[in-house]
Amino acid sequence: MVILGIETSCDETAVCIIEADGPPESADIVIRANITLSQAALHAPYGGVFPNLAKREHIKNLPVILERVLKEAKLENDKPAIDAIAVTYGPGLEPCLWAGISFAQELAKKWGVQIIPVNHMEGHIFSALLRRKDEPASSAGRLEGDYQLLAPDFPALALLISGGHTELDLMEGYGKYRLIGETRDDAVGEAFDKVARLLGLSYPGGPEISRLAEGVRTSASSSPPFALPRPMLHSPDYDFSFSGIKTAVLYLLKKIGPLPTPDVDGLQTSGVVCEIAKEFEDAVTEVLVSKTKKALREYGAQTLIVAGGVIANTHIRSEFRKLGTEEHIELLIPEIQHTTDNALMIAVASYATAMSGVEGLQRITRPLRADGTARVGERNN
Fold it and tell me: Which of 48, 58, 91, 144 could cross-link to 8 by cystine, CB 3.0-4.6 Å?
């Protein structure tokens, strides 16, 4: 089955073509072409994603990327040998989602193929189930090669951490999800960006905080530690809250006073800033790991999946590897290049869920609308 994948939920415009074959628990995935264009530099002056600007860029970029993808896949432009189009319908920024959906609908009508709507967070889950058969690609933004889908042992616990989401889902089978915990305010990636802004760091803030924190971890720093709260660490549920850590950083900075000026390259190297970055990263990681550990034990999960852009963070990645070892559980984490938003995960998720028999091809015929608040699983209240 040849699938064209489209992802435009936020500020990455992504298109890919995959060829998939076999049952979802062991499908062979060949990436014929895969391209992602990031708008991060364009949104940096705003300190975050500006939705209408992102939508405009998606509309401009999609036809260009499609032409490149079809050329790389050696398919004709007018009526390529495509069996289905997979597109993200939510969650995300609705203007951006509509850009991708409208483009997919135009292509589906022109080519006479069906559309498979895909939940963005379900895509992240499937990004963790991909394993490469050959050597990793070296070109940034272009994921190519042969992969195989891994079959997690169910029930599986999925922690999804990104710029817009922080949630724990119990996966009881393909297409069968139950939400057991989520953030009550800021998503973890959002908290990283907001704290980075308070520290005078560039956007996106996550990589900058990680860089400063790692510098402290690998040095014999004598700077005094700063104690930040661990919100909801001991709450009886599996919900999260990260706005309180951000507020604590704000009060700490008011107490400290003006921060040192960045160096000539615009990089912040102050020991105080580095220590705050490390303590913030430690606080966030402790909450994520602790809640996940408790959920693993209560629900008897056989597999732990951690996915989303934030799992690219070196320290968080390392701590979850330790958790997997301590709990003697299979840990599935995406390759670094698969952690950010991409069309590959959307195409793969569409194939796996459509072929699993859980919802089957009914997913293709249901009404297609953008849903900025779509969930991969619902709570049982």
Answer: 58
